[in-house]
């Protein structure tokens, strides 16, 4: 792989990471039932959010295509609304992975997870739409 292609892939990953990080932060601030570990100082909290966002971005990049292939009939039957459930599954997998790393994010209920996954997806899509144009 040439250097230019590698830089483009890295920039796209970083843009998605920033989108997920901001979305997770807003979800933790706005949605009751979503808890992210907080550091003693602000930069530590942002570092924890960056680790969780990196895990979420990696899980989303690796697992989401597999779920889309397996659940293709459900996407057709629900006119694409199954993507909301896919977001919840990916967020729960990322939460499990982040707990194993020692940077926990937790959800009190399925509803809180659903709202958080939806908010993260919307915020991430907006940020990727704005910042992603520079990476093309």
From TrEMBL:
Q: Which residues cross the membrane?
A: 7-26, 46-67, 74-97, 109-131
Which keywords appear in this protein's UniProt record, sorted alphabetically? Membrane, Transmembrane, Transmembrane helix
Q: Name one Pfam family in it.
A: Phage_holin_4_2
Name recorded for this polypeptide:
Phage holin family protein
Q: What is the organism field in this record? A: Scrofimicrobium canadense
